[in-house]
Predict the 3D structure of the following.
Amino acid sequence: MVKKISSETVRADFNDPPAVLYYARAAHFLGLWKSERTLIERFFPDQSTPLLEAGCGAGRVTVKLWEMGYRQITAFDFAQELLDQARSLAAERGVTDITFVHADATRLNPFHSLSETGHKPVDDNNVIIAGARGFGGALFMFNGLMQIPGRENRRTALRELHRVCAPGAPFLFTTHDRDSSLTERALWRLEALRWERGEQDPRLVEFGDRYFEDESGRTFMHLPDRAEILADLAATGWTHEFDAMRREVATESRAVLDFSDECRFWLGRRNAD
Ligand SMILES: C[S@@+](CC[C@H](N)C(=O)[O-])C[C@H]1O[C@@H](n2cnc3c(N)ncnc32)[C@H](O)[C@@H]1O
């Protein structure tokens, strides 16, 4: 019997050397995309507010947030190897006041730590205090949310982020979009036929999932359509405020286009309780 992809599969893939190298390189040499910077500046105007970055990986966005002037940053990831990279990048850039935590987005209660490997969370108290007051904003960049297998698990992560954020907090994230081009639509029609016949990759959890291998190693990704994300935000305490394809936000450099496919940016605003 073929094993379905689980969060353990995804975590092991991100801890694998090709993925660690890929994301560490991007963190060191690529930095923020133009579109990311534009939207962060637009939706996170208060640099003194505590920010939570989910799925920070090797710190590509984290360290840039600090360089942009944000001073209360908590960043977490469930892949220890990537988190170690993020910590050393911050140290290398002379940044000492980012709180890095080893945690899973679907279990933040109260900032559940995965520190069984002997890595102490940098500052547990600080994290819990920030969480109790409520983060003033959250980010889950470069499709990390879509790398959680199972729609109900993705909704759990959205609920967890809602729980630790303050009312009115912005939440910026990206997804792919199954309807983004005629080619995508045609490919997904073919995939739908495979699912109808039961001929899909048996490791996949749901229609829209992909599991592939490239220079960044093995990657699990759920590709939603727009209606799915709108429904997930509404079901988990977030009000949809904005969404746009990356090409509509900014023209990216060749290096960014080589690093990453087109995606859709989303901004949810945390509802009051
Ligand atoms: C595509 S990478 C992006 C990394 C980084 N944000 C960047 O933009 O370079 C997605 C990240 O999300 C993390 N991730 C996926 N599922 C997660 C979960 N359930 N909890 C915490 N981190 C998760 C992965 O370990 C990985 O570092």
Summary: The beta strands are 51-54, 73-77, 99-102, 137-140, 170-175, 209-214, 217-222, 238-245, 264-270.
